Amino acid sequence: MYGNLSITEPASADRFAEDPEKLAEFEAKIERGEKIEPTDWMPREYRRQLLRMIEQHAHSEIIGALPEGTWITRAPGFKRKMALMAKVQDEIGHGQLLYSAAETLGKTREQMLTDLLTGKAKYSNVFNYPAITWADTAVIAWLIDAAAIINQVTNAKGSYGPYSRALERICTEESFHLKYGYDNVVTLATGTKKQKEMVQEALNRWWKPIMHFFGPPDTVSQHTAVLMRWKVKIASNDQMRQQFLDSYVPKIWELGLTVPDPNLRKNPDTGQWEYSDPDWDEFWRVINGNGPCNKERLAVRRWVEESGAWVRRALMRPDAQYVAPLC
Ligand code: FAQ
User: Fold this and answer.
1) Is 231 in the pocket of ligand 1 (CB under 6 A)?
2) Which helix (H) or strand (E) holds 296?
3) What angle do CA 94, 99, 101 make, to 5 degrees?
4) pLDDT at 9 (0 to 100)
5) pTM, two decimal places
6) Where residue 224 sits, what CATH number does that domain have?
7) Is there a domain that residue 321 lies in?
8) Does the Cβ of 27 fall within 6 Å of ligand 1?
């Protein structure tokens, strides 16, 4: 059992029962800890769910490069500019890895990008908020990367081979991002009074989106049960949120920073963190296209698609091998 969810609960909906024998074989394979590969038989619902999740993850990486990307030219000092540029480049690379993993499930990259640009596909809530100051980029690189690592290290143990292998590689790079972000936060938190205020204000702005990052509470989550049953998700949304609070609240306090939630405390009897309702209405608004930066983020991606179209056309020409080296 994972919280109130059981991975062994029977397939109740008809959509899972397309071929009971194959389904039983498929589930036995997952139970034995073997990976499912693209050419293996899989239930339609497994394919649909994986594609939805990996595609959203890929979109999150390329949109996720934007809030920090706007700071490359303004990063304080050459070393920080170089480090930020490398991080942003890594995030785009993660998008590439994830689009490739998603393509193994039968959807083309072009179709995925079209769905992103038309607003049909979702991406992580957190990237619809602005990075107002340099301290915002520090908080993103430390705590959003930390949250992403908690999610991805867990899901790297998942059942779908291409996704779990992509996640392993992504996590290695993300752990460098986290160290880079932590270094920036420590510099600000131990700097001048003004710098400390700046990082505290950034943390105050990002706390709610970070709480939302792991998804809605388990009692509301629509997909967790089936995803855990097939070991695509290895932990539930609330379990990952608790793991994040366990690991990072003490580190935040250690730096002399505060968490903007007067009700945050670890209950000594249950061992669980208790916190205020992080305004789930805001979460639903943001993921459905009405956050502070949704329109701006998609406008940038549209511009990227349009202004890069000639490069893709040139590469697709039959004589592209002669054209590409000259570009
Ligand atoms: N944002 O039933 P559940 C990164 C949607 S990578 C937006 O609980 P599920 C790297 C969900 O899609 C960040 N939408 O869903 C980086 C569903 O809507 P749908 C991305 C969300 O799938 C760092 C509905 O709510 N990571 O940060 C969110 O079981 C720094 C119901 O929710 C991944 O994508 C959300 N936060 O659990 C880059 C990891 N949460 O599709 C640059 C893979 C939920 O029915 C800088 N994904 N929704 O219309 C997952 O682990 C899962 O999909 C969850 C959500 C845990 C995100």
Assistant:
1) no
2) helix 294-307
3) 95
4) 39
5) 0.93
6) 1.20.1260.10
7) no
8) no
What confidence score (pLDDT) does residue 1 get? 33
| Residues 148-177 pLDDT 10s | 999 999 999 999 999 999 999 999 999 999
Measured CA to CA, the distance from residue 68 to residue 272 in angstroms comes to 32
CA dist 131 to 67, 69, 206, Å?
6, 10, 9
Instruction: Identify whether 273 is part of a domain.
Output: yes
Q: Report helix angle 78-103 to 109-117, nearest 10.
A: 120
The neighbour count for residue 17, using CB atoms within 10 Å, is 11
6 in any annotated domain: no
| Residue 129, phi then psi, degrees to nearest 5 | -115, 150
Per-residue DSSP letters for 198-265?
HHHHHHHHHHHHHHHHT-S-TTT-SSHHHHHHTTSSSS-HHHHHHHHHHHHHHHHHHTT---S-TT-E
With a 6 A CB cut-off, is 242 part of the ligand 1 pocket? no
Residue nearest to atom 42 of ligand 1 (CA): 64
CA of 55 to the centre of ligand 1 (A): 10
Question: Which pLDDT band, with edges at 50, 70 and 90, does 19 fall under?
Answer: confident
Task: Provide the domain limits for residue 196.
Answer: 13-316
- Region 3-7 average pLDDT: 34
Could you identify the atom of ligand 1 that is nearest to the CA of residue 65? 42
Determine, yes or no, domain membership for 276: yes
User: Nearest-CA neighbor of 157 among 228, 247, 246?
Assistant: 228
- What is the model's pLDDT at position 112? 98
90-140 pLDDT per residue, tens: 999 999 999 999 999 999 999 999 999 999 999 999 999 999 999 999 999
Nearest to 131 by CA among 172, 71, 210: 71
Structure tokens, 305: 């698609």
Dihedral over Cα of 89, 114, 212, 236: its sign: negative
Ligand 1 atom nearest to CA at 53: 53
**What is the C-alpha to C-alpha distance for residues 279 and 52, in angstroms, rounded to an integer?**
25
296 is written with which tokens?
């701006």
- Torsion 261-263-268-271 (CA) sign: negative
